[in-house]
Amino acid sequence: MIKVKDVAFVRFTAPDLDAMERFGQAFGFVTAERTSTALYLRGTDPEPYLHVTEQGEPGFQGMAFDAASADDLEAASQIEGASAVENLDGPGGGQRVRFEDPDGFGVEIVHGREAASGLPVRRGSPLNTGSRVVRQGVFQRLEAGPAQVKRLGHCVIRVSDFPASARWYQSNFGFLTSDEVYVGEPSNKLTAFMRCDRGEEFVDHHSLLCIGLGEASFDHAAFEVEDFDAVMLGHDHLVGAGYDHHTGIGRHILGSQIYDYWKDPWGHVVEHFTDGDLLNVDSETGSCEPAVAVGTQWGSFSP
Asked: Considering the chain, what is the average pLDDT of its residues?
């Protein structure tokens, strides 16, 4: 087993890279590289890319996670079902080891991608609250436009056998469980919100969610934006551009993220989020029924 340190990127195929690039830029990505057969989209953080689309029939091809070291990448190549270490295409180079999970989803463990320069992030003035006034004599004037994606936060897939998928991801890549969701009895687990194990360092409440419901399929990928204003500005921009809204805006219970979900031109769901929970190795595992998992603290949500 190795312990992956974060989710790195998601990989898709689509027949029209121009259409995907237009949607990606409206969603808040920046084009990192475009070839005749592939499109690489990045955010404002230094990762060289977060979203890959290759020419082909529309579909989800898989997801990638960062190995903590070159030694861990080599160790990953010794796990059952692994490929050899091979070079990774795309900006920033690097290397990868490829797997297929129990449902055949592609999983890449990557290391050595060269960081890009971070990009400027539009920020508003500090926010006044009812009990903490920090902005005085300064106007709040926001610049309209896309939300500006910062980074990839998590990926969600639907799986045919949740216990088998959970065992595979946790035993191979060291994921910890943040919250379990059960039906009827706590032993009848439907899904688990899983986070990376970086010891005492705080990480996202979940980087991976495997939902044991229905046929195996892609559910969504979630990308962090700067703040609540960025979520709202991004929403208005995508509405104005005529794209298909999926669900939101609201605040989840599990993970606490403020969210807004959209569909790309081929129906793949991508999420803007901000203000999520952070946990570390000492955080306790929660347990709840599905009504909590799909519930909201406010706002609308349709899975």
From this structure: 97
Model confidence at 150: pLDDT above 90: yes
Q: What is the pTM of this model?
A: 0.97
- Measured CA to CA, the distance from residue 242 to residue 264 in angstroms comes to 11
Give pLDDT, residue 77.
98
Omega cis (within 30) before 109: no
Long-range contacts of 40-43 (CB under 8 A, 24+ apart): 40/90, 40/91, 42/91, 42/116, 43/119, 43/148, 43/149, 43/150, 43/151, 43/152, 43/223
**b vs e for 186-205, b when ≥16 Cβ sit within 10 Å of the residue's Cβ?**
eeebbbbbbbbbbeeeebbb
Quickly list H helices, 77-175. Answer: 162-173
What domains are there in the chain, each with its CATH number? Answer: 6-114+148-299 (3.10.180.10)
Flag whether pLDDT at 123 surpasses 90.
no
Closest CA to 66 of 22, 126, 6, 141: 6
In eight-state DSSP terms, residue 102 is: T
Per-residue pLDDT tens for 51-107?
999 999 999 999 999 999 999 999 999 999 999 999 999 999 999 999 999 999 999
Rounded to whole angstroms, the Cα distance separating 156 from 62 reads: 11
Partners of 209 in the beta sheet?
Answer: 156, 193
Burial class (CB in 10 A: 0-12, 13-18, 19+), 52: buried
**Residue 242: per-residue pLDDT:** 98
Identify which of 62, 15, 23 has the alpha carbon closest to the alpha carbon of residue 237: 23
